[in-house]
Specification:
single chain; about 45% helix; elongated; two-stranded antiparallel ribbon; about 100 residues; 4 helices
Length: about 100
């Protein structure tokens, strides 16, 4: 099976009105073959571009620090526009710099 054949198979499967396993049985395609190609196509998908971030320095030693159950966690927190927050605790500066360096390249 080629990539284009698999993509055509996927289109037909989506519009067949039966379960995937039933469709594959009718087509004579093993479920394991379908999964192989599905995973292969997913692995080929280009990664999403890294979103631009803004870094703002807050005033005070613990300004903007993350807190958990009333305990402030020292370090750096990156807050992304979609609401995801990545916290890098004290001692993880090298990891933070690696993440930032990769995002800039």
């Amino acid at each position: 099976m080629t990539k284009s054949e698999f993509q055509e198979l996927q289109k037909r499967a989506a519009s067949c009105g039966t379960t995937l396993k039933e469709f594959l049985r009718i087509e004579g395609v093993a479920y394991s073959t379908y999964n192989y190609w599905s995973n292969k196509i997913k692995a080929e998908v280009e990664p999403m571009p890294i979103a631009p971030i803004s870094i703002h320095k807050s005033a005070g030693p613990m300004a903007g620090a993350v807190s958990m159950a009333g305990v402030e966690l020292p370090g750096v927190t990156l807050a992304f526009p979609n609401g995801v927050r990545a916290h890098f605790g004290r001692g993880s500066e090298a990891m933070l710099m690696e993440v930032l360096s990769q995002s800039m390249s």
